Amino acid sequence: MKNRNPKDAAINREKSDGSKSVYNKKKNPRRFGWQGRSLENSTNSYYNPAMIKKKREFYDNAKHVKKYKKLVKQQPTDVPSAIIPLEEENETEDGSKMSKNNKKRKDRESRNLIEIYEKKHEEIEKARMEKEAKFQARKEEREKSEARRKAIREKMMKKTHKGQPVMKYRIQHLLETIQGSMNKS
Asked: Which pLDDT tens digit goes with each residue over 82-91?
């Protein structure tokens, strides 16, 4: 039979609750990564886009550094010296040595750069001119439609010397709108 004495139950409860509370105390830090959140973290846990941007930038930079190191590691170190051909060297006016191949390469590179710059500049200029032409056409169209609306409005507002509206223009406008709708359908 069960012991129904309240004193015994209270004693048993204290022992069992005590062991469970210690167990729970040990279990909670494991759940939260062995640490609770600091007061600083909980008070400053608002949305901060600058911090998010900094973190993203940091990880992007780390990714690029990792890729660079990987590429450097893959390239053999002594191969570049074997690849470079022996160049003919000539002395210039200063007495310094300069290779013919190097000089030719620099000339070609400068010409290529100039050509690239000119092409890019022409494309930009062409795009600007097209944009300007579109803008001008739109502006002219707007002015024409505005003038047409103004003329129609003046005709619609005309009145006789007795103050009555001139029906000729109103009827003409109705006729034009009906004909326009008939042509569309």
From this structure: 444 544 445 5
Q: Chain-centre distance of CA 14, in angstroms? A: 62
List Cα–Cα distances, 171 to 121, 131, 151, 174, 177, in angstroms: 57, 41, 15, 5, 10
How far apart are alpha carbons 116 and 60 in whole angstroms? 31
What pLDDT band is residue 74 in, cutting at 50, 70 and 90? confident
- As to burial, measured by CB atoms within 10 angstroms (0-12 exposed, 13-18 middle, 19+ buried), residue 142 is exposed
Which residue is associated with the tokens 């940091």?
Answer: 58
Whether 88 and 101 have beta carbons less than 8 Å apart is answered as yes
How many CB atoms are closer than 10 A to CB 156? 13
C-alpha to C-alpha distance for 10 and 17, rounded to whole angstroms: 10
Which pLDDT score is estimated for 37? 63
